[in-house]
Amino acid sequence: MVQKAKILLVDDRPENLLALEAILSALDQTLVRASSGEEALKALLTDDFAVILLDVQMPGMDGFETAAHIKRRERTRDIPIIFLTAINHGPHHTFRGYAAGAVDYISKPFDPWVLRAKVSVFVDLYMKNCQLREQAALLRLQLDGGRQNVGETKESAGLLAELSARLAAVEEQAEALSKQLDESADAAAVATAAHLERKLTGLRRALDALEPGAGTPAS
């Protein structure tokens, strides 16, 4: 059963959180509310999130300060942040948002379809990374098992075939996602997808190296 991704919604106004939930409910993921920067940081201590939608203007700790704390933590520094703001901001204000670590900056009122599409991209990337970690864990188990049970050739071959098939499925999905991102021209998402593809390539090479006869000189 595929685990749902968690999306963190941070806004001090309940009506804004309700609106975000209505827009993103169609993605069928787990939506987590936070009504302040402090509450968001607390949620990030225990849960992993695919993306954070962060309101800029909040009493106490504002969005910029919250983002700075998120980016300073090793556990959370790579989570994409989309800033939401009702301010009629200029270039300096936008630059401050990107400097704080945001991957996108959207002004209210925003197009619900556009916001949902952007969030969907980062959810897809998160799910692919989760699949990649699972394949890497299986590969490590296979490597350890191969060292301990060198004689179990048939069992090892079966496990390698299963790993290869699972990895192929992730590779196919990642390729389709990259094509989709090429069309959207979202630079941050494209860079994340390229990083994912590099990880997949490394995992495929490691898996190929385990195949019988790999690295054996031809006679």
UniProtKB/TrEMBL annotation:
<dbReference type="Pfam" id="PF00072">
    <property type="entry name" value="Response_reg"/>
</dbReference>
<keyword id="KW-0597">Phosphoprotein</keyword>
<feature type="domain" description="Response regulatory">
    <location>
        <begin position="6"/>
        <end position="123"/>
    </location>
</feature>
<dbReference type="InterPro" id="IPR050595">
    <property type="entry name" value="Bact_response_regulator"/>
</dbReference>
<protein>
    <submittedName>
        <fullName>Response regulator</fullName>
    </submittedName>
</protein>
<keyword id="KW-0175">Coiled coil</keyword>
<dbReference type="InterPro" id="IPR011006">
    <property type="entry name" value="CheY-like_superfamily"/>
</dbReference>
<dbReference type="InterPro" id="IPR001789">
    <property type="entry name" value="Sig_transdc_resp-reg_receiver"/>
</dbReference>
<feature type="modified residue" description="4-aspartylphosphate">
    <location>
        <position position="55"/>
    </location>
</feature>
<feature type="coiled-coil region">
    <location>
        <begin position="160"/>
        <end position="187"/>
    </location>
</feature>
